[in-house]
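Provenance

Sequences were taken from public entries as deposited. Structures were produced by running a predictor on each sequence independently, with no templates supplied. The record for Acyl-CoA dehydrogenase from Exophiala spinifera is shown for reference.
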Amino acid sequence: MASKGSSKSLFRTLWRKTPAKHLMLNRPRIRSPGRLAAFSTTRSGHARGTEYLQLHDPDLTESQRTVREAISKVCARFDDNYWLAADREHRFPVEFHQAVAKDGWLGICMPSAYGGSELGIAEAAVMVQTIAESGAAYAGASAVHMNIFGLEPVRKFGSEEQKKRMLVPLIAGRERACFGVTEPNTGLDTLRLQSRAVRKGDEQHYELSGQKIWISTAQVAEKILVLVRTTPLEHVKKPSHGLSLFYTDLDRTQVQVTEIPKMGRAAVDSNTLFFDGWKVPRQDLIGEEGNGFKMIMHGMNAERILIAAEALGIGFAALRRAALYAGERKVFGRPIGQNQAIQHPLADSWMQLEAARLMIYQAARMYDQGYETGEYANAAKYLAAEAAFTACERAVMTHGGMGYAKEYHVERYLREIMIPRIAPVSREMIKNYIGERVLGLPRSY
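Predicted structure for Acyl-CoA dehydrogenase:
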């Protein structure tokens, strides 16, 4: 997908970078506010609830719509039964990951010099929403999440040599990476990480010792972006100082990787890591020693926006299945969707999801325009997680007893939608952030 040279428009850039087989050449393209208004008035109000990966949202930009269309073509090759099997077998979706990599989408936000497309978070959010909404849910989104934006610290703070060495194979899909920050004894209190890195011997390597937990894809990843403390907490002026970031080989001869049995998203593993005396080359240190926290903070708002978009996709997938089932299932001689007890909760969920969607893409636009978007990114993540959870719960209840059966897929959505209510930041911490930063209230913790 990467393309060198200038272009007259973003759409033309996407046209060159997107495989022609993924484009519907006869689809009308919106170019002016007048046409946009005309297009939106012809939209069916119920399309979102029943149409598979619809393209009708009038607020999407041309580039976002092109990304959604192209990604939907990839996702169409991996139906719900593929994801049901991957979940049942606890098997990483290698075929899906390779299909996404083959068409160049893993570098959607990365520079073209390293194989990327140099698009924004607004386009990346459309991409991951589409993946989740296709039925892949968090299994599909998590399989590619780290590749899309995880190495933003390398892109921004790495040397030219590091960018070529680290970004190119990740974008091409030749390597997979995981992200190691959370620890068993610190949780969300990142500034109190206990894992240590000490410069040893000839100073050409560090020795890392400590533990990490809830590390996704560590069973299959070749690389890890890991945050550890290089200066003891008691020796720094501020807790945010003295943390350093490394991108290095996940050497299983030096790192013990143990999978965590868990409630959902079984296709993508979660793990604990234990290491003592793990030798990491000095050339794998990203940026300056001691500035690691600043580097990971750079990408946290983007991560919240992407997590929110993934949750949104699951919510719409669940709502789509619920609406279709409610229209077809007959009890007492009438479709159950004719009953307001079924119809009204689903209608309410559509409104909640659509409100969350607008917040997500507002946050994404602001991020791409250079705004500090903490309040919008956090609010988007909170609203999407809550709306999607409610939609998934209602989808199970709409299906009645069959909602508990794996063959109808909604129980899988419900298990997976617990993730954004917990990670990467809790609902309570988001409320703390809004209370302090937006409302000016005193810190509560």
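The chain has three domains: 62-175, 178-293, 296-438.
Residues 178-293 form a domain with the Butyryl-CoA Dehydrogenase, subunit A; domain 2 fold (CATH 2.40.110.10).
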